[in-house]
Amino acid sequence: MRPIILAFAATAAYLPVALYLDATYKPxxxxxxxxxPFTKIGPNAYVAYHKIAGAKGDVPNDPRRATLELTExxxxxxxxxxxxxxxxxxxxxxxxxxxxxxxPPALVFSASDNSDPNTNGRVYRVTxxxxxxxxxxxxxxxx
Length: 143
Fold this sequence. Notes:
25% helix, 4-stranded antiparallel sheet, alpha+beta, 3 helices, 18% strand
């Protein structure tokens, strides 16, 4: 009898927690840590090719289209939408998420202090609150 009571008590404790976590879970498909190595393309600029489902980069006819945000050790970098030449020349945390033709978008960025992000030991994370999850409809179909 005692094992049955313990099993019932464990289930009673687990079930509300599981239901709460299931109801509040939102997959974080649009946040990730940038992976080294980064390619140096100017005095202060580095490029990272990082895919975020549904993210769109800036394009010539819409230079502020990207909604990507970049952080360095949890602190926001910027300004965003900076010309690639300014990122290279001035650095200081500037970046642009740029899309050319059908290629995946490229993140051209600089460290806050113009150090080399390959060796400065800092964590660079990207998020894109404006990215549309291309699999959202399929997820809603699952029970």
